[in-house]
């Protein structure tokens, strides 16, 4: 039995995790932490922490997990470069799963995006569109960021030079060395992502639409169960699903 502590327990994802964990025979939720609670008081009751709280909290939490030798599954998105580096530096001390998206479908989208970019080649313009509910705090989504990272890697481009966040005003003709990124917000959309490959005469669009947070929650719980028996290291959902 893997004992799990959930941070951000009162949030949308925290509640989905608690509901889904009750149906997961190999897992037991032994701690629920939200604003006002002290994680230090419950940390020793768990084997793995699953964090869906806030990007501001994650790096400090991961450092605490390293000090107490607890594995951590990180679901928060929107980390600064410094926080990301601090989290990655802990990989020699504890097992960490860091994934911008825990759904099997989106991890298939990541794989398909790489394949499509390799097959379609440089004649195709690359654009990514994402839509989320009106309460989401970070933009673009972590998943969209992973998608453009894959595209830039296949093209051999520096991501920060290639990225165009939205377009406004007299921006001129589109260059062949940019990746467009567009974030839509509204209603209760759980998470939609489309990668567009557009050439003269044809267009390919790869789309994933999440309609329930359960898909992320079940993926994160699967990651926690898997992580409990892994050595220290930095893993992602492709490792958990055996796609590497
Ligand atoms: P939410 O706002 O509904 O929930 C966040 C919860 O964390 C809230 O209850 C809040 O009170 C709590 N919290 C904030 N700061 C805290 C702290 N310092 N200590 C303890 N608890 C704290 O948000 P959400 O929609 O559940 O999303 C949470 C995070 O997960 C976001 O970063 C979001 O982008 C990310 N997310 C990732 C995936 C994925 O598959 N990786 C999927 C959905 C959401």
Q: Which keywords apply here?
A:
9 helices; binds nicotinamide-adenine-dinucleotide; single chain; 2 domains; alpha/beta; 36% helix; 5-stranded mixed beta sheet; Dihydrodipicolinate Reductase, domain 2; Rossmann fold; 244 residues
Break the fold down into its secondary structure elements and pairings:
Layout (H helix, E strand, L loop, with lengths): L1 E6 L4 H10 L5 E7 L5 H4 L5 E4 L3 H14 L2 E4 L6 H8 L6 E4 L5 H17 L4 E8 L9 H14 L3 H4 E3 L13 E7 L5 E9 L2 E9 L3 H14 L5 E3 L1 H4 L4
Helix pairs in contact: 1-8, 3-4, 5-6
Bound molecules: nicotinamide-adenine-dinucleotide (NAD).
Nicotinamide-adenine-dinucleotide (NAD) binds next to helix 1 and helix 3.
How is this structure best summarized?
This protein is an alpha/beta fold and 244 residues long. The chain has helices at residues 12-21, 39-42, 55-68, 81-88, 104-120, 142-155, 159-162, 214-227, 237-240, and strands spanning 2-7, 27-33, 48-51, 71-74, 95-98, 125-132, 163-165, 179-185, 191-199, 202-210, 233-235. The protein has two domains: 2-98 and 213-241, Rossmann fold (3-Layer(aba) Sandwich), CATH 3.40.50.720; 104-210, Dihydrodipicolinate Reductase, domain 2 (2-Layer Sandwich).
Please explain how this structure is put together:
The chain is α/β, with parallel strands linked by helices and 244 residues long. The protein folds into two domains: 2-98 and 213-241, NAD(P)-binding Rossmann-like Domain (Rossmann fold, 3-Layer(aba) Sandwich), CATH 3.40.50.720; 104-210, Dihydrodipicolinate Reductase, domain 2. Helices cover 36% and strands 26% of the residues. It has a six-stranded parallel beta sheet with strand order 2-1-3-4-5-11, with helices on both faces. The longest helix is centred in the middle third of the chain and has 17 residues, at 104-120. It starts with a strand and ends with a helix. The model has no long low-confidence stretch (mean pLDDT 97). The structure holds nicotinamide-adenine-dinucleotide. Nicotinamide-adenine-dinucleotide is lined by residues 7-8, 10-14, 33-35, 52-55, 57, 75-78, 99-102, 138, 216.
């Amino acid at each position: 039995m893997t004992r799990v502590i959930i941070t951000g327990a009162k949030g949308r994802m925290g509640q989905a995790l608690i509901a889904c964990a009750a149906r997961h025979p190999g897992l037991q939720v032994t701690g629920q932490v939200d604003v006002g609670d002290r994680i230090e008081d419950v940390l020793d009751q768990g084997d793995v922490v699953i964090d869906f709280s806030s990007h501001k909290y994650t790096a400090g939490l991961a450092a605490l997990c390293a000090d107490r030798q607890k594995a951590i599954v990180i679901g928060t998105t929107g980390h600064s470069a410094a926080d990301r580096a601090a989290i990655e530096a802990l990989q020699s001390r504890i097992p960490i799963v860091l994934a911008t998206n825990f759904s099997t479908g989106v991890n298939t989208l990541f794989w398909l995006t790489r394949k499509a970019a390799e097959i379609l080649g440089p004649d195709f313009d690359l654009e990514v569109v994402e839509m989320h509910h009106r309460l989401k705090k970070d933009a673009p989504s972590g998943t969209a960021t992973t998608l453009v990272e894959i595209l830039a890697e296949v093209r051999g481009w520096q991501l920060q030079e290639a990225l165009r966040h939205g377009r406004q005003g007299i921006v001129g003709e589109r260059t062949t060395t940019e990746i467009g990124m567009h974030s839509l917000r509204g209603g209760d959309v759980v998470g939609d992502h489309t990668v567009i490959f557009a050439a003269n005469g044809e267009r390919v669009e790869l789309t994933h639409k999440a309609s329930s947070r359960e898909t992320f929650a079940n993926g994160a719980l699967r990651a926690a169960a898997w992580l409990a028996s892994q050595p220290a290291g930095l893993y992602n959902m492709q490792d958990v699903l055996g796609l590497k």
